[in-house]
Amino acid sequence: CGWNKPEYDALGMTMPDDHETRYRFGQEWFDIARKLWTETEPFDWDGEFYQLKGTYSLPLPKTDKVPIFNAAGSQHGRDFAVRNADYLFTPAIDLDKSREEIAAIKGQAAAVGRNLGLFTLSYVVCRPTNKEAEEYHHYYSQENADWEAVDNIINLMFAHAESFPKEVIRLLRDRMAGGHGGYPLVGDPDTVADGIQRLYETGFAGTTLAFVDYVEEFPYFRDEVLPRLEDRGLRLPVASAA
Hints:
Layout: H1 5-10, H2 19-38, E1 43-46, E2 51-55, E3 69-71, H3 75-84, E4 87-89, H4 95-111, E5 117-126, H5 130-143, H6 147-158, H7 166-179, E6 183-187, H8 189-202, E7 206-210, H9 214-231, H10 238-241
Parallel strand pairs: 3-4, 4-5, 5-6, 5-7
Antiparallel strand pairs: 1-2
């Protein structure tokens, strides 16, 4: 289903021009993978994209149900997730729009008897005060941004993608400089906790978290933000989770 043409080029493959063909390709690959996870004997496969003889994979997964995570923003990608995934990663750009999209996607999954959880991605700049957090965010993501690199990754990611309209790609430029296009969680511990709560109330089951310097910055987030999330019922206390 890939959008990254250089990856196709590196493997000597021609990337199909249309999104729908790429997802047919991906669906067939995934159908083969699922069969490999369950079949104990070699099997043949004669499909649109793959022709296999006596193929097998050992050892089989230890669990009957392998959790599937998928990332997509386009309608083809979301349809793929509804059919196959347990969790879908999708960007949070406009939370009001995200709320509507999440309800629609979960309804689409429920209609075919599936429960699909929605995740997003975000980045954190957490400091004792909002002023400190905003100043550091501006310092690294605006004053010292490598805009050539930002534009390069945007061109690479979206030149062959259908996930985002052009005006949204322009909006994402600042977020790409801030944290690879993630939802910004910038502020003091209460403000960051508020942002995570907004994601939860929008319908997201979880989010990734990125930091400029994970080793340096995460302990403050752990000590100040996680207890606030526990107090709000958004996270189980460590003892309960264990």
